[in-house]
User: What shape does this take?
Amino acid sequence: MATKKAQAKKTLKVTQVKSVIGTKESHRACVRGLGLRRMHQTVEVEDTPAVRGMINKVYYLVKCEA
Assistant: This one.
């Protein structure tokens, strides 16, 4: 039986830096999908293509760190 090494999952730190008031509903949904609820809140999310797409869509509302 082959043994699998534990792979460290890559994560991104995402911080909301601008309010979602007055933005499109789909952009608000992306911010909520990232797990952000309020200004200056930081969450760690897994680095996947879907998450990268959400961050790219709302780039003007969030700050992202590796």
